Amino acid sequence: MKLATLPNGTPDGTLVVVSRDLQRCMPATPVAATLQDALERWEKAEPKLRELAARVEAGAGEPFDPSRALAPLPRAWQWLDGSVYDSHSHLMQKLFKMAPVVHERPLMYQGVSDTFLSSTEDVPLPSEEHGIDFEGEFGIIVDQVPMGLTPEQAVGHIRLLVQINDWSLRTFAPIEMKTGFGWINAKPPCSVAPVAVTPDELGEHWRNCRVALPLEVRWNGKQFGQADGYQMGFGFHELIAHAARTRRLVAGTIIGSGTVSNENYREVGSSCIAERRAIEALDQGEPATSYMHFGDRVRMEATLPDGSPLFGPVDQRVVKAATAAAR
Amino acid sequence: MKLATLPNGTPDGTLVVVSRDLQRCMPATPVAATLQDALERWEKAEPKLRELAARVEAGAGEPFDPSRALAPLPRAWQWLDGSVYDSHSHLMQKLFKMAPVVHERPLMYQGVSDTFLSSTEDVPLPSEEHGIDFEGEFGIIVDQVPMGLTPEQAVGHIRLLVQINDWSLRTFAPIEMKTGFGWINAKPPCSVAPVAVTPDELGEHWRNCRVALPLEVRWNGKQFGQADGYQMGFGFHELIAHAARTRRLVAGTIIGSGTVSNENYREVGSSCIAERRAIEALDQGEPATSYMHFGDRVRMEATLPDGSPLFGPVDQRVVKAATAAAR
Predict the structure, then answer these.
(1) ipTM
(2) Which tens digit of pLDDT belongs to each residue from B84-122?
């Protein structure tokens, strides 16, 4: 099943059920007004949403335009982002000259969740001097998760998969990391691809609670990376259990994988510029690729191997924010 | 003006206007159903809420029981906690053997905001082995704040003041800090005193965007600390500007001061156990005071010098959580 959120003038939009080919949709209003609403009573809502999905698949509904959709959850009560691709962590440690972190536990931070940008809207940022970077990720959305559950118990709470661009401002990253407090300035709101899908939509490409599909990243129209999502050091079920160790997770909590990255990065490329800069530093002594400029565009999409769509693309520009004051 | 939120079976409760002496209240429903609702259109709502406050002050309304109130915002879209008392930072660095942090920028992390506990409910935590600690803080609630504003522009966005107990699990703190990613396991949901007040309620005790009042902390009935809130290295207006450097802040964002702490900590005591343990380590070579046990009670309250109430007390027990699985 595939779900999306269309704009209706309210912060949470209107939930729609989308056809597999992303060509048609039908309002889910008879079942749930918003995706948050559906997630809060998922066990009851899901079978009814699947009935609507079958009708859309049979040709009912209206045309769906992914570029018009909001983020599936335009705001969420919690956004926890992991960083569990070892090749990404190793490259970041080299780039930022950080001490290596031992991965007995998944790396995870809590980020801004009051705003998730749509896949096509301009991304307003204050300055090119901040080292504007994209980060292609996969993510999950859970229903309510009790405190203290095991990874095995967590599997059933993975209700939806999403594809995320976690915008990052690299000049702040090492400064904020050194405090130990995590990121505020380095992590403005993320963008999310238009369609959230249930795990069964991936078939054999959802394995060990990982997305076993390449994430194709294009920067200003040029191929940048196509790393596969499978090489997570911890699966999403383990990320849930880690997050829920001392807190419950409310329905609608989104958990990210961190930047998708593969050990053979010289062949498959990267899902963020910082990683390419780290590879350049390794190979040539210093980074060569600049971070993004205003007007630059990034496109990210993971499809099934036959090219059939899943999440739809993220495809958008960064622009200078109209700030309230010059800083 | 003083505001509180009473339970009504919904996650956000019912907003009430409370008398100065915390004895009476009146539903704010004609103006705003919830505090979040009021904050989203504060400029229009505030004058009408003040009219209701005048009527409550004149004897209208019904009895108010602070112990029944929820947190003023039982959930919020964003919780950003500073740590800007230098004496606290110095003591924590000694206790956790962390490198000193240079304070050109305020320390701040993003914490769980989907749940704020009331001032009297039991606090469910998984294990005494996690180093259960309280942290007495002051905080502010803002209306919508644009990205990139100056500290001076931020002053007017400080709409309400609150008093917070930021529960902390100390065994996770240094482990998570070393990752640079901030805290997930170390920071379960906070508790908040029952009443949020407009800054004018503090009179001359609201100075330089700081709460110039002692926070009285009692642990199992015994005096533990009465540090004054004034010694912040950065004022709340500076914390807002820092947080909003690369993001807007949605209405209802809560920003905390971090553990209230004073340079003369040997005289005034502390607002968390970790700090006392650090002082013991300095004075006697090792910490002597244990962290909290299940059944322990902590009470925190800041009043005006004549004893008249402001926020009401936080006064609650920690208990063992009914976890979904033994870990």
Answers:
(1) 0.96
(2) 999 888 888 887 777 666 668 999 999 999 999 999 999
> Average pLDDT of chain B?
95
Cα separation values, A61 from A13, A38, A53, A216, B54, Å: 18, 19, 10, 30, 54
Chain B partners of A247 at a C-beta cutoff of 8 Å?
112, 115, 188-189
Tell me the β-bridge partners of A85: A232
Task: Pick A246's closest partner by Cβ from B98, B188, B326.
Answer: B188
- Ordered by start, the domain boundaries in chain A are 1-64, 73-326
CA–CA gap between residue A269 and residue A267 (Å, rounded): 6
CATH 3.40.50.300 fits B73-326, yes or no: no
- Within 10 Å of residue B93's Cβ, how many Cβ atoms? 14
Alpha helices in B69-119 (DSSP H): 86-96
Cβ burial, residue B203 (10 Å; 0-12/13-18/19+)? exposed
pTM score = 0.97
Residues for chain B: how many in total? Answer: 327
Residue A321: C-alpha distances to residues A79, A128, B153, B243 (Å): 23, 11, 18, 16
How close B296 comes to chain A (CA, Å)?
A: 18
Closest to B17 in 3D by CA, of B3, B31, B30: B3
Per-residue pLDDT tens digits for B55-95 = 999 999 999 999 999 999 999 999 999 999 998 888 888 87
Out of A101, A107, A148, closest to residue B126 by CB: A148
For residues A321 and A128, what is the distance between their CA atoms, to the nearest angstrom? 11
Residue B38's identity, in one-letter code, is A
Contacts of B58 (CB under 8 A, 6+ apart): none
CA proximity to B326, closest of B168, B126, B171: B126
Among the partner-chain residues B98, B177, B250, the one whose CB lies closest to the CB of A114 is B250
Say if the Cβ atoms of A181 and B182 lie within 8 Å. Answer: yes
Q: What is the Cα–Cα distance from A324 to B246, expressed in whole angstroms?
A: 11
